[in-house]
Amino acid sequence: MAFRHLARQHPISPLAIGALTTGMILFPHSTLHAEEPRQDHLARKPIYEDLTPLRQPPKSNPTPSEKPSMSSPTPTDRLAGQIRHVRLFIHAHSVAVEDRINAFMSSALHQERAFTQTIASLAPPPETHERIMPGALYVLVAAMAGTIISRNRNILLRATVPIAVGIGAAWVVLPVTSRNVGDLIWTYEEKAPIISLNHLRIRGVIEESWKQAKVRGEATKKWSDEMVKESREAVEGWLKKEK
Prior knowledge:
Blueprint: H1 2-9, H2 14-26, H3 40-43, H4 75-122, H5 132-149, H6 155-173, H7 175-189, H8 193-242
């Protein structure tokens, strides 16, 4: 009705009415304005463009509060870290224990090897024809005899006589073995200078005493031979006179 009223007041040509109807059908949501403001002055560009670049403000380092916050570890991550520490701790201590056991076994094997080699070095060579078993029994019997001899003596003689008799018997019965034992004892005595010096002094005194005893024994033997010879000659001369 309004459209008919407007058509009566303002006569419009049928062509305009058709164009308007077609536009309403094709563009139902478009709004028609009677007059749009011209915006040509907004789209115009200046004739001379500014060649100097715009100064940008310096970039400032972000403060700790502005840094992106890291996400806190989850309970699973903390548990995994604790398990890792425990595994590393157990592994380190197990390796240390294994190293100590290996070192102890190596030391024990070295000591065993050294002991067996030392015992083997004390044995006499086969070319000496020296036997350990009978000689050791003879030395033991001699030491027991020294104990019997010094049974009623003072404590000093009872402690020293069996040892001295046993050592003397060992040097007589097992000379090579006794020398090997003496060399072994000397190697241990060299580690203590005081003991080695005292040993050398005592050994020097014993050797000197042995030499003096040998000299005196030879002199005594010579004197006894001369006395026997003189006595025999005297007896033979007396017998000749009697005849």
